[in-house]
Amino acid sequence: MAVFDDVEKKDKLLLYPHSIDWRNHIPVANRAEAQTVTFDWVEPLRAECAHFVECIQRRATPRTDGNEALRVLTVLSACEQSLKRVYSPIDQPAPHRARSYFSHESACIDEGVEIGEGTTIWHFSHILRNSRVGKNCRIGQNVMIGPNVIIGEGVKIQDNVSVYEGVTLEDLVFCGPSMVFTNVINPRSEIRRMEELLPTLVRRGASLGANCTIVCGVTIGQYAFVGAGAVVVKDVPDFALIVGNPGRIIGWMCVCGNRIDFHGANSSGTCRVCQHTFRKVDQTVSPE
C-alpha cells in the first residue's frame, strides 16, 4: 500500500509492504512498518503548468492527455450511474488508450507484440507473440509474422506472406505477394525441429519479388533485388539482381530499383535512371 500526504512537511510518500498469508484457507494480514520513499519535491500545480507549457513548445503529447481524461470521466460516470441504481455494477469498461498504429478489426495481435507508430496492419493478418514491428510499416492481408520476429522501419509486406521465427527484416525491405520464407532446412512432419531453425537475414532496402522463395540460412544483401519466382539457396551480395531456380546473379540494381550498367569485372557503373555511380570489384558492388 502506498500513501501520499501532501500536507506533510516530510515523508510525504510512504510505502507499506503488507502481505497476506493463507492459514487454514483463511487470509491473514501481516501489517508491515512504513518505508519512506524519497523523491524530488516540487509544488504540484507549478509542475503541471510547466509541463503544459513544455508540451505546447515542443508539440509533444502530455503525460495525461485527452484520452486519459476520457478514461477517468468514463469511470466516474459509471460510478454515478451505479449509485443511482442502488450500487448495482455498471458493465462499462474504460476506453483503451488511442493506438499509434492501425490494425483492421479482423487482424489478430498477440500479447507481448511491439508495433511502431504509423504502421498499418490489414485484413486477417496475425502478429504472433514477442514480435517487433517498426514504424511506418505496411502489412497486407493474410500476413503472418512471428513468433519472435524482428521487422525494421518502413518495411512493406504484401498479401499472403508468412515471416517465420528466425527471419529478420531490416529497414525498408519489400516482400512481394505470396513470396515464401522457410526456417527449417530438412523438415519432416513427424520430427520436431524447432530447435534447429536456421536464421535468415534480409538487409536494408532489399526487394523480394512475388512468389520467390528464400531458403533458410542465407543473407540477402542491401538493396539486392530478387526477381519474381526465383529460388534463393545461398547468400546474395549487396545490389545483386537474382533470377531463376536456383537463383543466379544476372546484373546489379541501384538503390532506386533500376539497373546499373557496368563494363568489365572491375569497373565503375552508372544507374540508368538516377545516374548514381557505383564501383564493382568481382562480385562486390558499392556506391562511389
- Major sheet: 9 strands, mixed
Helical residue percent band = 10-25%
Provide mean pLDDT, rounded: 91
Shape: elongated
The assigned CATH architecture of the largest domain is 3 Solenoid
| CATH fold annotation of the largest domain | UDP N-Acetylglucosamine Acyltransferase, domain 1
CATH class categorisation of the largest domain: Mainly Beta
The total domain count is 3
How would you describe what is shown here?
With 288 residues, the protein is mainly beta. The protein has three domains: 1-41, no CATH class; 42-98, no CATH class; 102-287, UDP N-Acetylglucosamine Acyltransferase, domain 1. The chain is 12% helix and 30% strand. It has two helices and 31 strands. The strands form seven sheets. It has a nine-stranded mixed beta sheet, with no helix packed on it. A hairpin with a 2-residue loop joins strand 3 and strand 4 (26-30). The termini are far apart. The model has no long low-confidence stretch (mean pLDDT 91).
Sum up the structure in keywords.
288 residues, mainly beta, UDP N-Acetylglucosamine Acyltransferase, domain 1, 9-stranded mixed sheet, 6-stranded parallel sheet, 12% helix
Would you spell out the secondary-structure blueprint of this structure?
Elements (H helix, E strand, L loop, with lengths): L1 E3 L8 E3 L3 E5 L2 E5 L4 E2 L7 H15 L7 H19 L17 E2 L4 E2 L4 E2 L4 E2 L4 E2 L4 E2 L4 E2 L4 E2 L4 E2 L4 E2 L4 E2 L3 E3 L4 E2 L4 E2 L18 E3 L4 E2 L4 E2 L4 E2 L4 E2 L4 E2 L7 E4 L4 E5 L7 E3 L3 E6 L5 E5 L2 E4 L1
Parallel strand pairs: 6-9, 7-10, 8-11, 9-12, 10-13, 11-14, 12-15, 13-16, 14-17, 15-18, 17-20, 18-21, 19-22, 20-23, 21-24, 22-25, 24-26
Antiparallel strand pairs: 1-2, 2-5, 3-4, 26-27, 28-29, 29-30, 30-31
